[in-house]
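Troubleshooting log. The previous structure file for this entry was overwritten by mistake, so regenerating from the original sequence record. Sequence copied from the archived sheet and checked twice against the printout by T.R.
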Amino acid sequence: MSLTELEMLEREYAVPTYVRNPVQFVRGSGARLWDADGNEYLDFLAGISVLNVGHCHPRVVEAVRDQVGRLSHVSNLYYTEPALKLSAALSRNSLGGKVFLCNSGAEANEAAIKLARRARPGGNVVVLEGAFHGRTYGALSATPQETKQAPFAPLVPGFVVVPKDPGVLSDAVDAGTAAVLLEPIQGETGIHPLSDDLLVAAREACDRTGAALIFDEIQTGMGRTGTLWAYEQTDVLPDAITSAKALGGGLPIGALVTGPGLADTLQPGDHGSTFAGGPVVAASALVALEICSDPELLARVRVAGDRLASGLATLPYVTAVRGRGLMLAIDVNPDVAAPELAKRALLEQRLVVNATGPATIRLEPPLIVSDDELDEAVVRLAELAP
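Regenerated output below.
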């Protein structure tokens, strides 16, 4: 179908929750995309940090094709090998506890909130200003952004919002706190790494009070920052992490991974999901996790991130570059509107990025991106200079 026909279908039949760009993508490979007219694009968003292994990775395609041809779904009333192998792989590659599989990042955070409240009934959940944890009601209640929350009030009670200040956070955690939930790098608001002091304060406060420290690694995980999980670059070990996005290799998945201390907190009947850990997506995730765990790839991400950051810093309209690994953002000067810049990059330079605010562009290419592609992206952005 043509783009015009799709736009007509959207106007008539799709709930208008998205503001789409006027491009119809039909094929992807590695860090490249093609539209319906055959134009080639560099993808430096990776489906919002979903395609860490790149588009249509041959091993992911093979695993999905093989599994969907044999068994696609039976529910969690029965055993399936891919789901339990994935749970084991996630535990062994992270905190060493147990795993609840689900279908998205928001669902993973909902499970984490329930885990914390099961461990400490009625307890509050401390979250940070600038956080984004999802759009379902519990996750939205943990996302202190007025524009996202206000239309849907009243929200779930029991969330305490604090600034990104170690002392204030520490004072907010007490015997009535069930958990501190945070992103090691806040992604949706423009790639803002949390300070080591803040993470240490959160760990110490949770140790002092018995609250759970939960890291939302939905965007930072799966090698995005140069280690499999962002917490590995800190001196802080959380009690649980949540994962999604890149975990599925391009298919929808989420996971709550506990440490040993919380492994048996949720009991039969406490939580569930019809599609969670389905054989097809679990087979895809097993391959994606194996690829993203490769030490050579992770080392490459760190080098590639430095190369891209250095290139971005040379752009005349860039005022700041921040992030870690291949999770980067640029701030642009006041004469450049970031949303318009992102749209021009797409339509004029065929480079896929996105704006996370009026002055910030986010760049999260597939982890398998080449040096030539990194340099090419910088050249294309340079062409947009006013």
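DSSP finds 13 helices and 17 strands in the chain. Archived copy saved in two places this time.
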